[in-house]
Amino acid sequence: FFYYIIKCSNYEVTKEINMHKDINNQLSKLQIREILEEDAVITLKLVLEMADESDNYPFTSEDYAMSIENQRSFINYMNSLDNCIFLGAFIENELCGILYLEGGRRQRTYHICNLGMGVKKEYWNNKIGSALMSKALEFVYDSEHIAKVDLQVRIDNKYAIALYKKFGFEIEGKNKRALFIDGDFVDYLNMGKIID
C-alpha cells in the first residue's frame, strides 16, 4: 500500500513536471500582436471563458452583452484610434490572453487610457501578463498622445497588483463596494502610471 502511494505520488509529480515542460515549450512560441477583426470570434470566446473561471472581472459570461458583431466593431474602433490598442497573446493559433488600452474620446481626456487585461487561467504565472504589459507600454511610450494610464484591480488580487507595481503603477485610491459577488462586496484599487 505504501509503495502504491509513492508510485502514485511519483506519477503525479512526473505528470506535473511534464505539463510544466509542455507549457514552457508552448511559451517559447508566444506571440504578442494586435487583435484584428478576424480574431473577433476567438476573442469573444476567451473573454467568456475568463469571466467564468475567475471572479476578477466585473461580469460573468451570462451578463457580458457582446455579440460577435459588437466584438468586431469594438476591435475596429480600437484599431482606428492612435490612443488605443488591443493586444492578444497567442501560442500558435490559440489566444490565451488579452490587453486593451482605451483612450479618452474627448479632447480633455484624450491623453488618458484605461487598461484592462486578462489571461486564461491555465496560463497564469507564466509571464504572459508581463509580456502583454511590456508590449502595451512600448506602444504608450511611442505615442505622442498618451500621458497617463489608469486601471482598476480587485483589492485582494495580489498577483495582479504586484504585476502592475512592477511596471510602475501606483495606488491612487480605493473604489469601495465596486463589485458584489456571492453575497459579498469587493473593493477595487485605482492604480495609475504617469507617462513622461
Give an account of the 3D structure.
Helix content is 39%, strand content 31%. The chain has 5 helices and 7 strands. The protein has a 7-stranded mixed β-sheet, sandwiched between helices. A hairpin with a 2-residue loop joins strand 6 and strand 7. Helix 2 (40-53) crosses helix 3 (68-80).
| Overall 3D shape | globular
Secondary structure class reads: alpha+beta
Distance between the termini: 64 Å
The Rg value, from CA coordinates, equals 19 Å
Q: SSE order, as H and E?
A: HEHHEEEHEHEE
Q: How many strand segments?
A: 7
In helices, the fraction of residues equals 25-40%
Put simply, the count of helices is: 5
Percent of residues in beta strands? 25-35%
How would you sum up the major sheet? 7 strands, mixed
Strand order of the largest sheet: 1-2-3-4-5-7-6
Q: Could you list the spans in which at least 5 consecutive residues all have pLDDT below 50?
A: none
Taking all residues together, what is the mean pLDDT? 90
Give the topology, please:
Layout: H1 2-27, E1 30-34, H2 40-53, H3 68-80, E2 85-91, E3 94-103, E4 112-119, H4 128-142, E5 148-154, H5 158-166, E6 170-181, E7 184-194
Parallel strand pairs: 4-5
Antiparallel strand pairs: 1-2, 2-3, 3-4, 5-7, 6-7
Helix pairs in contact: 2-3
What would the keywords be for this entry?
196 residues, globular, alpha+beta, 5 helices, seven-stranded mixed sheet
In short:
This protein has five helices and seven strands; from the N terminus they run H-E-H-H-E-E-E-H-E-H-E-E. The chain is α+β, with helices and mostly antiparallel strands and 196 residues long. A seven-stranded mixed sheet has the order 1-2-3-4-5-7-6, with helices on both faces.
